[in-house]
Amino acid sequence: MKVIRNVAEMKAMRKTLAGPIGFVPTLGYLHAGHISLVNQSKKDNASTVVSIFVNPTQFGPKEDFEKYPRDEQCDIAMLEKAGVDVAFLPAPHEMYPNGFNTWVEVQGITERLEGAVRPGHFKGVATVCNKLFNIVQPDKAYFGQKDAQQVLVIKKMVADLNMNLELVVISTLREADGLAMSSRNSYLSQDERKAATVLYRALLKAKEMKQAGEHDAETIREAMAELVQTEPLAEIDYISIADPTTLTELEKVKSQALVSLAVRIGKTRLIDNIVLT
Amino acid sequence: MKVIRNVAEMKAMRKTLAGPIGFVPTLGYLHAGHISLVNQSKKDNASTVVSIFVNPTQFGPKEDFEKYPRDEQCDIAMLEKAGVDVAFLPAPHEMYPNGFNTWVEVQGITERLEGAVRPGHFKGVATVCNKLFNIVQPDKAYFGQKDAQQVLVIKKMVADLNMNLELVVISTLREADGLAMSSRNSYLSQDERKAATVLYRALLKAKEMKQAGEHDAETIREAMAELVQTEPLAEIDYISIADPTTLTELEKVKSQALVSLAVRIGKTRLIDNIVLT
Fold this sequence. Notes:
2 copies of one chain form a homodimer. The first copy, chain A, has helices spanning 7-16, 32-44, 72-82, 92-95, 113-117, 121-136, 148-160, 190-195, 198-211, 217-229, and strands at residues 2-4, 21-26, 47-52, 86-88, 102-106, 140-144, 166-170, 234-242, 257-265, 268-276. Chain A is α/β, with parallel strands linked by helices. Chain A has 2 domains: 2-170, 3-Layer(aba) Sandwich (Rossmann fold); 183-276, Pantoate-beta-alanine ligase, C-terminal domain (Pantoate--beta-alanine Ligase, Chain: A,domain 2, 2-Layer Sandwich), CATH 3.30.1300.10. Strand 5 of chain A pairs antiparallel with strand 5 (102-106) of chain B.
Protein backbone atom coordinates (compact mmCIF):
# COMPACT_ATOMS: atom_id res chain seq x y z
CA MET A 1 0.00 0.00 0.00
CA LYS A 2 1.25 3.44 -0.95
CA VAL A 3 0.91 6.19 1.66
CA ILE A 4 0.66 9.60 0.00
CA ARG A 5 0.67 12.92 1.81
CA ASN A 6 0.45 15.55 -0.88
CA VAL A 7 -1.99 16.46 -3.61
CA ALA A 8 0.40 16.53 -6.57
CA GLU A 9 1.73 13.09 -5.72
CA MET A 10 -1.79 11.73 -5.34
CA LYS A 11 -2.75 13.13 -8.76
CA ALA A 12 0.36 11.57 -10.32
CA MET A 13 -0.29 8.23 -8.60
CA ARG A 14 -3.89 8.31 -9.84
CA LYS A 15 -2.66 8.03 -13.42
CA THR A 16 -0.81 4.80 -12.68
CA LEU A 17 -3.70 3.01 -10.91
CA ALA A 18 -5.68 0.32 -12.70
CA GLY A 19 -9.33 1.30 -13.15
CA PRO A 20 -12.08 1.31 -12.19
CA ILE A 21 -11.11 3.14 -9.03
CA GLY A 22 -13.06 3.04 -5.78
CA PHE A 23 -12.65 5.78 -3.18
CA VAL A 24 -13.49 5.84 0.52
CA PRO A 25 -13.13 9.30 2.08
CA THR A 26 -12.80 9.16 5.89
CA LEU A 27 -11.84 11.24 8.90
CA GLY A 28 -9.72 8.33 10.11
CA TYR A 29 -9.83 6.56 13.48
CA LEU A 30 -11.15 3.69 11.42
CA HIS A 31 -13.59 1.05 12.62
CA ALA A 32 -15.36 -1.92 11.08
CA GLY A 33 -17.89 0.41 9.43
CA HIS A 34 -15.13 2.06 7.37
CA ILE A 35 -13.68 -1.34 6.53
CA SER A 36 -17.05 -2.50 5.22
CA LEU A 37 -16.90 0.42 2.76
CA VAL A 38 -13.37 -0.60 1.80
CA ASN A 39 -14.45 -4.20 1.28
CA GLN A 40 -17.29 -3.17 -1.01
CA SER A 41 -14.94 -0.92 -2.97
CA LYS A 42 -12.50 -3.78 -3.39
CA LYS A 43 -15.29 -6.00 -4.72
CA ASP A 44 -16.39 -3.34 -7.24
CA ASN A 45 -13.08 -1.90 -8.43
CA ALA A 46 -9.58 -2.74 -9.61
CA SER A 47 -8.02 -0.18 -7.24
CA THR A 48 -9.14 1.31 -3.95
CA VAL A 49 -8.02 4.65 -2.52
CA VAL A 50 -8.85 5.65 1.08
CA SER A 51 -8.35 9.19 2.33
CA ILE A 52 -7.85 10.08 5.97
CA PHE A 53 -8.35 13.76 6.63
CA VAL A 54 -9.87 15.38 9.67
CA ASN A 55 -11.35 18.22 7.67
CA PRO A 56 -11.22 21.41 9.76
CA THR A 57 -13.83 23.25 7.67
CA GLN A 58 -16.65 20.88 8.58
CA PHE A 59 -16.24 21.44 12.33
CA GLY A 60 -17.84 24.44 13.98
CA PRO A 61 -15.76 26.68 16.27
CA LYS A 62 -17.23 25.04 19.36
CA GLU A 63 -17.05 21.49 18.02
CA ASP A 64 -14.56 18.68 18.55
CA PHE A 65 -12.01 19.28 15.76
CA GLU A 66 -9.06 19.47 18.15
CA LYS A 67 -9.98 16.43 20.19
CA TYR A 68 -11.38 14.36 17.31
CA PRO A 69 -9.69 10.97 17.79
CA ARG A 70 -6.65 10.25 15.60
CA ASP A 71 -4.50 7.12 15.33
CA GLU A 72 -2.66 7.24 12.04
CA GLN A 73 -0.46 4.23 12.68
CA CYS A 74 -3.38 1.98 13.52
CA ASP A 75 -5.43 3.33 10.58
CA ILE A 76 -2.62 2.62 8.12
CA ALA A 77 -2.23 -0.91 9.48
CA MET A 78 -5.98 -1.54 9.11
CA LEU A 79 -5.99 -0.26 5.53
CA GLU A 80 -2.92 -2.30 4.66
CA LYS A 81 -4.57 -5.40 6.07
CA ALA A 82 -7.78 -4.66 4.16
CA GLY A 83 -5.83 -4.61 0.89
CA VAL A 84 -6.16 -0.92 0.07
CA ASP A 85 -3.94 0.30 -2.78
CA VAL A 86 -3.41 3.92 -1.74
CA ALA A 87 -3.88 5.70 1.59
CA PHE A 88 -4.10 9.45 1.04
CA LEU A 89 -3.34 11.47 4.18
CA PRO A 90 -2.96 15.10 3.13
CA ALA A 91 -1.71 17.71 5.56
CA PRO A 92 -4.23 20.51 6.26
CA HIS A 93 -2.10 23.06 4.35
CA GLU A 94 -2.15 20.75 1.32
CA MET A 95 -5.94 20.85 1.26
CA TYR A 96 -6.31 24.46 2.39
CA PRO A 97 -3.24 26.43 1.33
CA ASN A 98 -2.88 30.08 2.34
CA GLY A 99 -5.50 32.20 0.63
CA PHE A 100 -7.84 29.29 -0.04
CA ASN A 101 -11.20 30.92 -0.73
CA THR A 102 -13.56 28.74 -2.79
CA TRP A 103 -16.59 27.00 -1.34
CA VAL A 104 -19.15 24.56 -2.62
CA GLU A 105 -22.54 24.95 -1.07
CA VAL A 106 -25.57 22.72 -1.47
CA GLN A 107 -28.61 24.73 -0.43
CA GLY A 108 -32.03 23.50 0.69
CA ILE A 109 -31.46 20.08 2.27
CA THR A 110 -28.45 21.43 4.19
CA GLU A 111 -30.69 23.77 6.17
CA ARG A 112 -32.33 20.89 8.05
CA LEU A 113 -31.30 18.39 10.74
CA GLU A 114 -27.49 18.35 11.06
CA GLY A 115 -27.24 21.47 8.92
CA ALA A 116 -29.60 23.38 11.20
CA VAL A 117 -27.69 22.40 14.34
CA ARG A 118 -24.22 22.62 12.77
CA PRO A 119 -24.18 25.74 10.53
CA GLY A 120 -21.43 25.54 7.91
CA HIS A 121 -20.91 21.82 8.49
CA PHE A 122 -22.15 20.70 5.07
CA LYS A 123 -20.39 23.54 3.28
CA GLY A 124 -17.16 22.08 4.68
CA VAL A 125 -18.21 18.55 3.77
CA ALA A 126 -19.25 19.46 0.20
CA THR A 127 -16.10 21.50 -0.38
CA VAL A 128 -13.70 18.85 0.88
CA CYS A 129 -15.49 16.05 -1.00
CA ASN A 130 -15.47 18.12 -4.17
CA LYS A 131 -11.71 18.60 -3.77
CA LEU A 132 -11.08 14.95 -2.92
CA PHE A 133 -13.14 13.77 -5.89
CA ASN A 134 -11.11 16.04 -8.19
CA ILE A 135 -7.83 14.81 -6.71
CA VAL A 136 -8.63 11.09 -6.69
CA GLN A 137 -11.00 11.07 -9.70
CA PRO A 138 -12.72 7.85 -8.63
CA ASP A 139 -15.31 5.93 -10.60
CA LYS A 140 -17.21 5.19 -7.40
CA ALA A 141 -17.11 6.70 -3.91
CA TYR A 142 -18.37 4.88 -0.82
CA PHE A 143 -20.29 6.46 2.06
CA GLY A 144 -21.99 5.04 5.13
CA GLN A 145 -25.76 5.31 5.60
CA LYS A 146 -25.10 6.38 9.21
CA ASP A 147 -24.48 9.89 7.89
CA ALA A 148 -27.73 9.88 5.91
CA GLN A 149 -27.91 13.61 5.31
CA GLN A 150 -24.27 13.75 4.25
CA VAL A 151 -25.05 11.13 1.60
CA LEU A 152 -27.94 13.25 0.29
CA VAL A 153 -25.81 16.39 0.22
CA ILE A 154 -22.94 14.75 -1.64
CA LYS A 155 -25.32 13.06 -4.09
CA LYS A 156 -26.93 16.44 -4.78
CA MET A 157 -23.55 18.09 -5.31
CA VAL A 158 -22.40 15.35 -7.69
CA ALA A 159 -25.63 15.59 -9.69
CA ASP A 160 -25.88 19.40 -9.74
CA LEU A 161 -22.21 19.92 -10.68
CA ASN A 162 -22.20 17.05 -13.21
CA MET A 163 -19.30 15.33 -11.47
CA ASN A 164 -18.08 12.11 -13.01
CA LEU A 165 -18.52 9.49 -10.33
CA GLU A 166 -21.15 7.30 -8.76
CA LEU A 167 -21.93 7.23 -5.03
CA VAL A 168 -22.41 3.90 -3.29
CA VAL A 169 -24.15 3.88 0.10
CA ILE A 170 -23.37 1.09 2.56
CA SER A 171 -25.61 0.05 5.47
CA THR A 172 -24.74 1.24 8.94
CA LEU A 173 -22.63 -1.26 10.86
CA ARG A 174 -23.71 -1.74 14.47
CA GLU A 175 -22.19 -3.11 17.66
CA ALA A 176 -23.82 -6.24 19.12
CA ASP A 177 -26.16 -4.06 21.22
CA GLY A 178 -27.22 -1.95 18.24
CA LEU A 179 -25.04 1.14 18.72
CA ALA A 180 -24.04 2.49 15.29
CA MET A 181 -20.29 2.34 14.81
CA SER A 182 -18.68 5.77 14.99
CA SER A 183 -15.24 7.12 15.74
CA ARG A 184 -16.92 9.36 18.30
CA ASN A 185 -18.01 6.31 20.34
CA SER A 186 -14.44 6.35 21.65
CA TYR A 187 -15.36 9.47 23.66
CA LEU A 188 -17.89 7.52 25.76
CA SER A 189 -17.29 6.44 29.35
CA GLN A 190 -18.54 3.01 30.36
CA ASP A 191 -21.84 4.41 31.66
CA GLU A 192 -22.27 6.62 28.61
CA ARG A 193 -21.52 3.68 26.34
CA LYS A 194 -24.47 1.82 27.89
CA ALA A 195 -26.73 4.86 27.64
CA ALA A 196 -25.77 5.36 23.98
CA THR A 197 -27.82 2.36 22.89
CA VAL A 198 -30.85 4.56 23.47
CA LEU A 199 -30.50 6.02 19.95
CA TYR A 200 -31.00 2.68 18.25
CA ARG A 201 -33.68 1.66 20.73
CA ALA A 202 -35.61 4.79 19.81
CA LEU A 203 -35.24 3.98 16.10
CA LEU A 204 -36.52 0.45 16.71
CA LYS A 205 -39.46 1.91 18.63
CA ALA A 206 -40.39 3.95 15.55
CA LYS A 207 -40.12 0.87 13.37
CA GLU A 208 -42.34 -1.16 15.70
CA MET A 209 -44.98 1.56 15.90
CA LYS A 210 -45.09 1.89 12.12
CA GLN A 211 -45.40 -1.88 11.80
CA ALA A 212 -48.19 -1.84 14.39
CA GLY A 213 -50.08 0.59 12.17
CA GLU A 214 -49.17 3.98 13.66
CA HIS A 215 -48.95 6.51 10.83
CA ASP A 216 -48.96 9.78 12.73
CA ALA A 217 -45.39 11.06 12.65
CA GLU A 218 -45.75 13.31 15.70
CA THR A 219 -47.05 10.43 17.83
CA ILE A 220 -43.98 8.41 16.83
CA ARG A 221 -41.60 11.31 17.45
CA GLU A 222 -43.11 11.80 20.92
CA ALA A 223 -42.77 8.11 21.78
CA MET A 224 -39.14 8.20 20.64
CA ALA A 225 -38.45 11.29 22.74
CA GLU A 226 -40.07 9.69 25.75
CA LEU A 227 -37.88 6.63 25.34
CA VAL A 228 -34.68 8.69 24.99
CA GLN A 229 -35.63 10.70 28.07
CA THR A 230 -35.59 7.55 30.19
CA GLU A 231 -31.78 7.78 29.91
CA PRO A 232 -30.57 10.40 32.41
CA LEU A 233 -27.29 10.84 30.46
CA ALA A 234 -29.08 11.54 27.18
CA GLU A 235 -30.09 14.97 25.87
CA ILE A 236 -32.03 15.21 22.60
CA ASP A 237 -30.70 17.50 19.87
CA TYR A 238 -33.41 16.55 17.38
CA ILE A 239 -35.72 13.68 16.48
CA SER A 240 -36.90 13.70 12.88
CA ILE A 241 -39.26 11.71 10.71
CA ALA A 242 -38.73 13.14 7.26
CA ASP A 243 -39.05 12.57 3.56
CA PRO A 244 -35.83 10.66 2.69
CA THR A 245 -35.11 12.89 -0.33
CA THR A 246 -36.19 16.39 0.66
CA LEU A 247 -35.76 15.97 4.45
CA THR A 248 -38.99 17.88 5.04
CA GLU A 249 -40.69 16.68 8.21
CA LEU A 250 -43.63 14.36 7.63
CA GLU A 251 -47.06 14.56 9.22
CA LYS A 252 -48.06 11.08 8.09
CA VAL A 253 -45.71 8.12 7.68
CA LYS A 254 -46.95 6.50 4.50
CA SER A 255 -44.33 5.24 2.05
CA GLN A 256 -40.65 5.87 2.81
CA ALA A 257 -39.52 7.83 5.83
CA LEU A 258 -36.06 8.65 7.16
CA VAL A 259 -36.17 8.42 10.94
CA SER A 260 -33.11 10.13 12.38
CA LEU A 261 -31.97 11.59 15.63
CA ALA A 262 -29.08 13.40 17.26
CA VAL A 263 -28.55 12.91 20.97
CA ARG A 264 -25.90 14.14 23.34
CA ILE A 265 -24.63 11.46 25.70
CA GLY A 266 -22.71 13.50 28.23
CA LYS A 267 -20.48 15.70 26.08
CA THR A 268 -20.59 13.36 23.09
CA ARG A 269 -22.98 14.08 20.24
CA LEU A 270 -24.15 10.93 18.43
CA ILE A 271 -26.40 10.50 15.38
CA ASP A 272 -28.21 7.51 13.94
CA ASN A 273 -31.02 6.74 11.50
CA ILE A 274 -33.09 4.08 9.82
CA VAL A 275 -35.28 4.21 6.75
CA LEU A 276 -38.84 2.97 7.23
CA THR A 277 -40.32 1.45 4.08
CA MET B 1 -18.79 19.31 -36.44
CA LYS B 2 -21.13 17.65 -33.96
CA VAL B 3 -23.81 19.85 -32.40
CA ILE B 4 -24.83 18.50 -28.99
CA ARG B 5 -27.67 19.82 -26.88
CA ASN B 6 -27.74 17.65 -23.78
CA VAL B 7 -25.34 16.84 -20.98
CA ALA B 8 -25.46 13.05 -21.17
CA GLU B 9 -24.70 13.09 -24.88
CA MET B 10 -21.84 15.53 -24.37
CA LYS B 11 -20.34 13.28 -21.68
CA ALA B 12 -20.66 10.26 -23.99
CA MET B 13 -19.13 12.16 -26.92
CA ARG B 14 -16.26 13.29 -24.67
CA LYS B 15 -15.11 9.68 -24.38
CA THR B 16 -14.79 9.33 -28.14
CA LEU B 17 -12.76 12.53 -28.72
CA ALA B 18 -9.02 12.36 -29.34
CA GLY B 19 -7.03 14.08 -26.59
CA PRO B 20 -5.76 16.49 -25.54
CA ILE B 21 -9.02 18.39 -25.54
CA GLY B 22 -9.33 22.17 -25.65
CA PHE B 23 -12.49 23.91 -24.48
CA VAL B 24 -13.82 27.39 -25.19
CA PRO B 25 -16.86 28.28 -23.05
CA THR B 26 -18.86 31.18 -24.53
CA LEU B 27 -22.20 32.95 -24.28
CA GLY B 28 -22.47 32.81 -28.06
CA TYR B 29 -23.02 35.68 -30.53
CA LEU B 30 -19.48 34.92 -31.54
CA HIS B 31 -16.97 37.42 -32.85
CA ALA B 32 -13.34 37.36 -33.89
CA GLY B 33 -12.27 37.41 -30.23
CA HIS B 34 -13.95 34.06 -29.62
CA ILE B 35 -12.48 32.67 -32.82
CA SER B 36 -8.99 33.66 -31.68
CA LEU B 37 -9.56 31.44 -28.60
CA VAL B 38 -10.75 28.63 -30.88
CA ASN B 39 -7.71 29.00 -33.09
CA GLN B 40 -5.35 28.79 -30.13
CA SER B 41 -7.19 25.72 -28.86
CA LYS B 42 -6.87 24.07 -32.25
CA LYS B 43 -3.11 24.73 -32.20
CA ASP B 44 -2.73 23.23 -28.75
CA ASN B 45 -5.11 20.25 -28.83
CA ALA B 46 -6.27 17.28 -30.87
CA SER B 47 -9.94 18.17 -30.32
CA THR B 48 -11.74 21.44 -29.60
CA VAL B 49 -15.12 21.77 -27.90
CA VAL B 50 -16.95 25.12 -27.80
CA SER B 51 -19.97 25.69 -25.59
CA ILE B 52 -22.62 28.29 -26.27
CA PHE B 53 -24.78 28.96 -23.24
CA VAL B 54 -26.28 32.26 -22.14
CA ASN B 55 -25.98 31.38 -18.46
CA PRO B 56 -28.97 32.86 -16.62
CA THR B 57 -27.34 32.61 -13.18
CA GLN B 58 -24.59 35.11 -13.98
CA PHE B 59 -27.06 37.85 -14.92
CA GLY B 60 -28.61 40.01 -12.22
CA PRO B 61 -32.39 40.52 -12.15
CA LYS B 62 -32.03 43.97 -13.75
CA GLU B 63 -29.40 42.94 -16.27
CA ASP B 64 -29.62 42.02 -19.94
CA PHE B 65 -30.22 38.26 -19.83
CA GLU B 66 -33.39 38.43 -21.91
CA LYS B 67 -32.05 40.75 -24.55
CA TYR B 68 -28.51 39.36 -24.64
CA PRO B 69 -27.86 38.88 -28.38
CA ARG B 70 -28.29 35.37 -29.76
CA ASP B 71 -27.69 34.01 -33.26
CA GLU B 72 -27.31 30.28 -33.04
CA GLN B 73 -27.27 29.63 -36.75
CA CYS B 74 -24.51 32.13 -37.42
CA ASP B 75 -22.53 30.90 -34.39
CA ILE B 76 -22.68 27.29 -35.58
CA ALA B 77 -21.55 28.31 -39.06
CA MET B 78 -18.59 30.25 -37.60
CA LEU B 79 -17.54 27.31 -35.42
CA GLU B 80 -17.87 24.88 -38.32
CA LYS B 81 -15.71 27.13 -40.47
CA ALA B 82 -13.15 27.45 -37.66
CA GLY B 83 -12.80 23.65 -37.56
CA VAL B 84 -14.34 23.02 -34.16
CA ASP B 85 -15.06 19.36 -33.36
CA VAL B 86 -18.03 19.72 -31.03
CA ALA B 87 -20.43 22.61 -30.39
CA PHE B 88 -22.21 22.13 -27.07
CA LEU B 89 -25.44 24.14 -26.80
CA PRO B 90 -27.28 22.90 -23.73
CA ALA B 91 -30.81 24.03 -23.00
CA PRO B 92 -31.20 25.94 -19.69
CA HIS B 93 -33.10 23.04 -18.09
CA GLU B 94 -30.21 20.72 -19.00
CA MET B 95 -27.82 22.90 -17.02
CA TYR B 96 -30.25 23.88 -14.26
CA PRO B 97 -32.85 21.15 -13.87
CA ASN B 98 -35.72 21.60 -11.42
CA GLY B 99 -34.43 21.64 -7.86
CA PHE B 100 -30.88 22.61 -8.84
CA ASN B 101 -29.35 23.94 -5.65
CA THR B 102 -25.54 23.76 -5.58
CA TRP B 103 -23.30 26.78 -5.93
CA VAL B 104 -19.59 27.34 -6.25
CA GLU B 105 -18.41 30.58 -4.73
CA VAL B 106 -14.98 32.13 -4.90
CA GLN B 107 -14.73 34.66 -2.11
CA GLY B 108 -12.36 37.62 -1.76
CA ILE B 109 -11.52 38.73 -5.30
CA THR B 110 -15.18 38.45 -6.32
CA GLU B 111 -16.10 41.27 -3.95
CA ARG B 112 -14.28 43.85 -6.06
CA LEU B 113 -14.83 45.55 -9.46
CA GLU B 114 -17.40 43.57 -11.47
CA GLY B 115 -18.33 41.56 -8.38
CA ALA B 116 -19.06 44.71 -6.38
CA VAL B 117 -21.28 46.17 -9.11
CA ARG B 118 -22.86 42.86 -10.15
CA PRO B 119 -23.58 40.88 -6.95
CA GLY B 120 -23.93 37.16 -7.64
CA HIS B 121 -22.38 37.48 -11.10
CA PHE B 122 -19.23 35.49 -10.30
CA LYS B 123 -21.13 32.89 -8.31
CA GLY B 124 -23.05 32.19 -11.53
CA VAL B 125 -19.85 32.23 -13.58
CA ALA B 126 -17.96 29.91 -11.21
CA THR B 127 -20.88 27.50 -10.94
CA VAL B 128 -21.48 27.22 -14.67
CA CYS B 129 -17.78 26.89 -15.46
CA ASN B 130 -17.43 24.21 -12.78
CA LYS B 131 -20.31 22.31 -14.40
CA LEU B 132 -19.00 22.79 -17.94
CA PHE B 133 -15.52 21.66 -16.92
CA ASN B 134 -17.00 18.51 -15.38
CA ILE B 135 -19.11 17.83 -18.45
CA VAL B 136 -16.43 18.48 -21.08
CA GLN B 137 -13.41 17.44 -18.97
CA PRO B 138 -10.96 19.45 -21.06
CA ASP B 139 -7.19 19.47 -20.71
CA LYS B 140 -7.13 23.19 -21.37
CA ALA B 141 -9.81 25.89 -21.30
CA TYR B 142 -9.46 29.20 -23.13
CA PHE B 143 -10.58 32.59 -21.80
CA GLY B 144 -10.20 36.13 -23.07
CA GLN B 145 -8.18 38.72 -21.16
CA LYS B 146 -11.02 41.20 -21.77
CA ASP B 147 -12.81 39.62 -18.80
CA ALA B 148 -9.74 39.91 -16.58
CA GLN B 149 -11.51 39.39 -13.27
CA GLN B 150 -13.39 36.38 -14.63
CA VAL B 151 -10.05 34.81 -15.53
CA LEU B 152 -8.79 35.36 -11.97
CA VAL B 153 -11.96 33.91 -10.45
CA ILE B 154 -11.91 30.79 -12.63
CA LYS B 155 -8.18 30.30 -12.02
CA LYS B 156 -8.77 30.52 -8.29
CA MET B 157 -11.65 28.04 -8.45
CA VAL B 158 -9.61 25.56 -10.48
CA ALA B 159 -6.69 25.83 -8.06
CA ASP B 160 -8.74 25.77 -4.84
CA LEU B 161 -10.92 22.84 -5.94
CA ASN B 162 -7.98 20.91 -7.47
CA MET B 163 -9.71 20.70 -10.84
CA ASN B 164 -7.84 18.87 -13.57
CA LEU B 165 -7.35 21.41 -16.31
CA GLU B 166 -5.16 24.31 -17.29
CA LEU B 167 -6.47 27.79 -18.14
CA VAL B 168 -5.08 29.63 -21.14
CA VAL B 169 -5.63 33.38 -21.36
CA ILE B 170 -5.72 35.05 -24.78
CA SER B 171 -5.12 38.76 -25.44
CA THR B 172 -8.11 40.99 -26.02
CA LEU B 173 -8.95 41.42 -29.69
CA ARG B 174 -9.79 44.98 -30.71
CA GLU B 175 -11.52 46.71 -33.57
CA ALA B 176 -9.36 49.00 -35.73
CA ASP B 177 -10.21 51.98 -33.48
CA GLY B 178 -9.28 50.10 -30.30
CA LEU B 179 -12.72 49.06 -29.04
CA ALA B 180 -12.45 45.67 -27.35
CA MET B 181 -14.51 43.07 -29.18
CA SER B 182 -17.63 42.13 -27.24
CA SER B 183 -21.01 40.66 -28.10
CA ARG B 184 -22.52 43.62 -26.27
CA ASN B 185 -21.06 46.04 -28.85
CA SER B 186 -24.03 45.00 -30.98
CA TYR B 187 -26.25 47.02 -28.62
CA LEU B 188 -24.54 50.28 -29.61
CA SER B 189 -26.08 52.86 -31.94
CA GLN B 190 -23.75 54.59 -34.41
CA ASP B 191 -23.11 57.50 -32.05
CA GLU B 192 -22.63 55.20 -29.09
CA ARG B 193 -20.24 53.04 -31.12
CA LYS B 194 -18.04 56.11 -31.66
CA ALA B 195 -18.25 57.12 -28.02
CA ALA B 196 -17.35 53.58 -26.92
CA THR B 197 -13.74 54.03 -28.01
CA VAL B 198 -13.36 56.18 -24.90
CA LEU B 199 -12.69 53.07 -22.79
CA TYR B 200 -9.57 52.13 -24.70
CA ARG B 201 -8.51 55.76 -25.00
CA ALA B 202 -8.64 56.01 -21.22
CA LEU B 203 -6.55 52.85 -20.88
CA LEU B 204 -3.96 54.22 -23.31
CA LYS B 205 -3.90 57.44 -21.28
CA ALA B 206 -2.97 55.41 -18.21
CA LYS B 207 -0.25 53.63 -20.14
CA GLU B 208 1.20 56.90 -21.43
CA MET B 209 1.19 58.49 -17.99
CA LYS B 210 2.95 55.49 -16.48
CA GLN B 211 5.51 55.57 -19.28
CA ALA B 212 6.00 59.30 -18.69
CA GLY B 213 6.90 58.52 -15.10
CA GLU B 214 3.59 59.04 -13.27
CA HIS B 215 3.38 56.52 -10.44
CA ASP B 216 0.54 57.91 -8.38
CA ALA B 217 -2.47 55.71 -9.07
CA GLU B 218 -5.06 58.28 -8.04
CA THR B 219 -3.61 60.87 -10.41
CA ILE B 220 -3.90 58.38 -13.25
CA ARG B 221 -7.45 57.35 -12.25
CA GLU B 222 -8.47 61.02 -12.22
CA ALA B 223 -6.97 61.66 -15.63
CA MET B 224 -8.78 58.60 -17.00
CA ALA B 225 -12.06 59.77 -15.49
CA GLU B 226 -11.59 63.22 -16.94
CA LEU B 227 -11.02 61.73 -20.37
CA VAL B 228 -14.09 59.47 -20.14
CA GLN B 229 -16.19 62.43 -19.04
CA THR B 230 -15.41 64.25 -22.28
CA GLU B 231 -17.84 61.78 -23.89
CA PRO B 232 -21.40 62.97 -23.15
CA LEU B 233 -22.79 59.46 -23.79
CA ALA B 234 -20.43 57.83 -21.28
CA GLU B 235 -21.13 57.21 -17.61
CA ILE B 236 -18.41 55.71 -15.42
CA ASP B 237 -19.23 52.63 -13.36
CA TYR B 238 -15.71 52.25 -12.01
CA ILE B 239 -12.10 53.00 -12.91
CA SER B 240 -9.58 50.80 -11.19
CA ILE B 241 -5.82 50.50 -10.95
CA ALA B 242 -5.29 47.35 -8.96
CA ASP B 243 -2.89 44.58 -8.11
CA PRO B 244 -3.41 42.07 -10.96
CA THR B 245 -3.66 39.11 -8.57
CA THR B 246 -5.51 40.38 -5.49
CA LEU B 247 -7.41 43.20 -7.24
CA THR B 248 -6.75 45.50 -4.29
CA GLU B 249 -6.54 49.12 -5.42
CA LEU B 250 -3.01 50.46 -5.66
CA GLU B 251 -1.71 53.75 -4.33
CA LYS B 252 1.50 53.57 -6.31
CA VAL B 253 1.93 52.00 -9.73
CA LYS B 254 5.26 50.23 -9.44
CA SER B 255 5.53 46.77 -10.98
CA GLN B 256 2.42 45.17 -12.50
CA ALA B 257 -0.96 46.87 -12.42
CA LEU B 258 -4.31 45.89 -13.87
CA VAL B 259 -6.00 49.02 -15.20
CA SER B 260 -9.66 48.32 -15.78
CA LEU B 261 -12.87 50.20 -16.19
CA ALA B 262 -16.58 49.74 -16.66
CA VAL B 263 -18.48 52.44 -18.48
CA ARG B 264 -22.07 52.76 -19.55
CA ILE B 265 -22.49 54.01 -23.08
CA GLY B 266 -26.19 54.85 -23.17
CA LYS B 267 -27.81 51.69 -21.80
CA THR B 268 -24.89 49.45 -22.72
CA ARG B 269 -22.36 48.54 -20.07
CA LEU B 270 -18.88 47.89 -21.44
CA ILE B 271 -15.67 46.78 -19.73
CA ASP B 272 -12.05 46.79 -20.80
CA ASN B 273 -8.59 46.52 -19.27
CA ILE B 274 -4.88 46.49 -19.89
CA VAL B 275 -2.02 45.30 -17.73
CA LEU B 276 0.75 47.83 -17.14
CA THR B 277 4.16 46.26 -16.65
